[in-house]
Design goal:
The protein is an all-alpha fold.
Length: 486
């Protein structure tokens, strides 16, 4: 009799467990559907979703929220933020109603609450954002206590790690993220990035690369090495291309960045992620490639939202300016000045830059473009070849000339020359009109810190905070303040 009962349990118990988890079967089909979302192929996602079985229906609510959130963050189309919020909230309610409380149920609810937390945060609804963060934390505690071996908890541990540290920094409970904190994050990443399926591992790597953009003060080259951001990795999809391109640009590896973007264009990734047209156009401008304007115009014609529109127009105006087409340059500047677009920091920067376009000189703009493309020696040559014209420059043009040479010599590791030009800019008394003095003080302090001359470093970080700046003021003062606390 006991033997018969044992045999029954062998068959009945697994069947009962499958019934409990029926709504939350993370099957190969569900994984494929999630992968199409990461590929930004939302039509294919809908096709796969429509074939979900009863066992997979619970995860449909999570994936619908996931798809809506990713589309909202990446699309070039106009999406009403209220309708996006409604879709995610409705799917959260539908998920709650199922009530089959297994690990994936709690996981999905935590994921949706993280999406809502970020959505509210970006809309400056901080109390609602905090409420959703605490809700996500509660769901994580639910599955961690009941299912401690749950294999997908790594993603949420990394998100919690990031948010807790950012809150701590914001409330001045601790200093700026240190290298040891970065090491702690990296250790967690490697611990959890090799568990679960390929789609989960793809997602966790993307999240981690994006998080390092603002979470740590770590050399981009080290991040590239630590997270193995190879050209092969960048070819996986449009999101991987974007993440890799940003990292290689920050690491001053502009040629590899161009190769990555060129390959992505060949693979058709620009179709679903329009911002890649903008990235490629800027990268081509910085290499003096006439194809730049084609991709910038593609971005503008495809982009149905205001995000980066003024910024793209500003980059187009640089192209036309160095090609001596001043009529098109002026026309674009007029559009930017008339725009009420504040969709991004880059768009705000564009408006600021063109407000000073009456001070533009061919050699200063060309030197800037060479500098932005990593051609530091070419940038220096353009400026040094123009030194006989300096007597005719306005004080503002002399300021930019000195700032650019300071940045060039800093990049070329000629620190003596760099410091001399930085000092000229810092004490120019033009900090209320240009951001160059405040940034020069910060870079000079950074330079002294790298030389272990901490007394001078602290002096210039403090001076950076004292200097005014018409743009980026809060950002550069915050960075300087954080370095002073170290």
């Amino acid at each position: 009799m006991i033997k018969i009962l044992n045999i029954l349990f062998l068959f009945i118990l697994p069947a009962a467990l499958n019934l409990v988890n029926a709504q939350f079967s993370y099957s190969l089909k569900v994984q494929e559907a999630q992968n199409t979302i990461l590929d930004l192929d939302f039509e294919k996602y809908k096709t796969i979703r429509n074939t979900f079985s009863i066992d997979e229906k619970g995860l449909e609510h999570w994936l619908n929220s996931y798809k809506t959130f990713i589309e909202y963050k990446t699309t070039n189309k106009k999406l009403n933020s209220d309708s996006v919020l409604n879709v995610i909230s409705e799917n959260e309610d539908l998920l709650y109603k199922i009530g089959q409380k297994d690990a994936m149920y709690y996981y999905c609810l935590a994921d949706i609450n993280f999406m809502l937390c970020l959505f509210y945060f970006e809309n400056n609804e901080l109390l609602k954002s905090l409420s959703k963060y605490l809700a996500a934390k509660k769901q994580i505690e639910n599955y961690q206590s009941s299912y401690p071996e749950f294999s997908f908890q790594g993603k949420h541990k990394l998100l919690m790690f990031t948010i807790n540290n950012l809150i701590s920094r914001q409330l001045s409970w601790g200093n700026e993220q240190s290298k040891s904190t970065y090491s702690d994050y990296l250790e967690l990443y490697w611990q959890y990035s090799k568990t679960g399926n390929e789609v989960y591992m793809r997602e966790i790597k993307l999240i981690s690369i994006f998080l390092t953009n603002f979470q740590f003060n770590i050399e981009p080259k080290r991040v590239i090495q630590d997270f193995q951001i190879t050209p092969e990795y960048s070819g996986i999809g449009g999101l991987e291309t974007f993440a890799s391109s940003v990292k290689y640009q920050k690491a001053d590896d502009y040629i590899l960045q161009l190769d990555i973007l060129s390959n992505a264009n060949d693979l058709g990734y620009f179709i679903n992620l329009n911002v890649l047209n903008l990235q490629y156009g800027i990268a081509l401008i910085n290499q003096q490639n006439d194809s730049a304007i084609i991709f910038l115009q593609k971005y503008l014609s495809n982009q149905k939202t205001n995000k980066f529109r003024s910024y793209a127009q500003f980059k187009c105006s640089l192209y036309y300016f160095i090609n001596r087409d001043l009529q098109k340059t002026d026309s674009l500047h007029e559009l930017i000045q008339q725009s009420s677009n504040h969709a991004s920091n880059e768009d705000i920067q564009a408006k600021y830059e063109v407000s000073h376009s009456h001070e533009w000189l061919y050699e200063l703009v060309l030197a800037r473009i060479f500098f932005d493309g990593g051609e530091f020696k070419k940038s220096a040559k353009v400026l040094l070849d123009s030194k006989d014209n300096i007597s005719n420059y306005s004080s503002q043009q002399k300021l930019e000339y000195s700032y650019r040479l300071g940045r060039i010599y800093h990049k070329l590791n000629d620190l003596d020359k760099a410091s001399r030009f930085y000092i000229m800019v810092i004490y120019s008394d033009l900090d209320s009109e240009y951001y160059y003095p405040a940034y020069s003080a910060y870079y000079l302090a950074e330079m002294y810190e790298e030389q272990c001359n901490f007394e001078k470093a602290k002096y210039f970080y403090a001076l950076c905070i004292e200097l005014d700046s018409p743009i980026y003021k809060a950002s550069i003062h915050k960075k300087a303040n954080q370095r002073l606390k170290k």
